[in-house]
Amino acid sequence: MKTFIYKFIVISLVITNLASSPKFLLAQQKLLGELSITKNSPESFVTVNNERVISGRSIASPSLILTSPQANAKVSLAKTGTIFLSPSSKLNLSFINSSISMDIFSGEIVIETVPNTSLNLFPLMEI
Question: pTM of the full predicted structure?
Answer without folding.
Answer: 0.72
